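Issue 218. Parser rejects a valid record. Input:
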Amino acid sequence: SVRKNKILPYLENLKKINFHPDDFVFFISTLEETKLIILSKEKLTKYRVHQSTSFDMNTDINKFLIHNIKNNKNSIYDLTIIMNLVEKNKNYRLFFKYRIIFNKIKLYLLEYTNDIKLNEVLYYFYVSFKIKDLKSKKDFIYHLTLFIFSKISYKKVSEFYSKRFFKYYQQKISSYIKLE
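Output the parser choked on:
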């Protein structure tokens, strides 16, 4: 639960957030806290997928890709708003910058029109190895490899990434809900 007085000054910004309201509320509510806050990837509850509110990504790769391109763009937009609000907190700013670049790289691999700069890729490299999380390091190496090869032959890399990404989500979703 979050105190109303923590969020009220940021209400106009919250109205702009469509994709990451939980992140917004959490980080804004902790912005002026003096106590230590620990972020953990430890799963505390099981993740549930509700069919009524979920996008059926298991049927058509083109629909899946359009959906994910839109989600990555929305994510970048929301995370940028949050990052600008928390910019005084160096750790929060770095955290959101990393997440924005991660989404930009995924978007680049799905849709070539996205503009990703070399310094952003290098920053992603730096943070990925600074984080003591093996998955972040694996994600980075995978994305960097595809990014480098995409400079040689974008079309082939994009097709490979799109198919692999689609297959990964099919497996992930099927582990959450029983697909027909």
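Fixed in the parser; the record now loads. The two ends are 37 Å apart (CA to CA).
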